[in-house]
Predict the 3D structure of the following.
Amino acid sequence: MTSFRLPAIQSVPSLSRAERAAILDSLFEPSPSLHLLCEPILRENVFANYAQLVYTIQQELVKLARSKSESDRQSLTDILSSHPRLGEKKIESAQSQAEQAQLSTPEPAETESLSQMNALYEKTFPGLKYVVFVNGRSRSLILQDMQMRIDRADFATEQDQAIAAMCDIANNRAGKLVG
């Protein structure tokens, strides 16, 4: 994974903007839109733990999903799209690399299937990438979940699932990165 450790939760408001951005990048994925959304939240609030911080961010993401504002919807799309595609060869985030490690040695047919499913997903849900908390699940289970979500073809529900998955991932990462 990475040698980065999350600072004590009580210190977050007193950290620099760059240090708060590093926290967001380690819990979620690097996203200027997430930084912009969360900077005031992290600067102005003291949280009891990282789970509470993630929950607060989740509520803000849900607000964006429910907003009628085009700029809010675009911000959410930018944030949700910050996660790498499942099975991508080049993944920038050390956390995502580790989380997807079990998906990196598939059969060639599975690699092609995942690539096709990613393309179909992104055609079904323009502007989104499939986000799921892998958490040890096999590639076949992930593909079944992706197919179910594509078949459902409900954009609002998909945004909600992506938000929930991002926050599940963030909570899992927090547990591993707490100093």
